[in-house]
Specification:
Layout (H helix, E strand, L loop, with lengths): L4 E6 L2 H12 L15 E4 L4 E6 L4 H6 L5 E5 H7 L4 E5 L5 E8 L10 E5 L2 H10 L4 E5 L6 H4 L5 E6 L3 H5 L2 E10 L1 E5 L1 H6 L1 H14 L6
Parallel strand pairs: 1-3, 1-4, 7-8, 7-9
Antiparallel strand pairs: 2-3, 4-11, 5-11, 6-9, 6-10
The structure holds 1-O-pyrophosphono-5-O-phosphono-alpha-D-ribofuranose.
Length: 213
């Protein structure tokens, strides 16, 4: 019997685009298109089993081997440094990690900079390379509120279209790193299901014109 490849997809809009790529590459699983609340779908003929996972959890499923491969944002990979292989840059879900602040903000280097973020490790690394002393304020969402309410001086957050910043009278100051969706693999699975995973990567490269080669 064919060994199944277990694939963790990020739930949501990006995940649907990612599934389109897998489908185009020949790993379709029609039941996934049915609009229901199921989280696991499989197609034995193609040897694939898909899971819808919260985007920030994909790397955990893959690192621990609950999924053989998955698609995670580079932001999550940089923040949590999971012990996985990064196989492909899918070139989708593009955005950037940036520092932003209220319009007209001037950094007073005599004071500790208060940084609100969902990504404390990325923020700490960025400022430690500049030898800038900071105070991290870890939040879980609506980060843009922090400078407006003077909870922080700046934010470190994802900027995609820039609309959230603009609509809240904030402006980007610096880009920390560009972000995109990456295909990742569990290290043990990569060894034991190597032929299947390699074949899948090749088919995705052939069929997806956004993949960074
Ligand atoms: C992300 C990010 C920004 C917004 C950026 O938030 O944290 O708030 O998207 O997108 P834009 O530049 O296109 O406006 P998300 O929707 O994930 O919500 P949350 O962080 O507030 O939970």
């Amino acid at each position: 019997m064919k060994q199944m490849i277990n694939i963790a997809l990020p739930k949501g809009r990006l995940g649907e685009k990612v599934y389109d790529i897998f489908e185009k590459a020949g790993y379709d699983c029609p039941s996934i298109r049915e609009n229901n609340r199921k989280l696991i779908f499989e197609n034995e003929v193609n040897g694939v089993r898909y899971f819808w996972v919260k985007p920030s959890d994909v790397a955990i499923y893959v690192e621990r081997g609950a999924a053989d491969i998955g698609v995670a944002g580079k932001d999550i990979l940089l923040e949590y440094s999971p012990d996985v292989y990064e196989l492909l840059d899918l070139g989708m879900g593009k955005c950037r990690m940036a520092v932003a602040a209220e319009k007209g903000f001037r950094d007073n280097t005599a004071q500790t900079l208060r940084v609100a973020t969902k990504f404390p490790n990325i923020a700490k690394k960025f400022y430690s390379e500049k030898s800038r002393e900071i105070d991290i304020i870890k939040l879980n969402g609506s980060i843009e509120l922090a400078p407006i309410l003077h909870l922080s001086d700046v934010i470190v957050d994802i900027v995609e279209t820039g609309t959230t910043l603009r609509e809240n009278n904030l402006e980007p100051l610096e880009t920390i790193v560009p972000i995109s969706a990456r295909l990742i693999a569990n290290k043990v699975s990569y060894k034991f299901k190597n032929a299947q995973i390699t074949a899948l990567c090749e088919k995705i490269k052939l069929n997806c014109d956004t993949v960074v080669k």
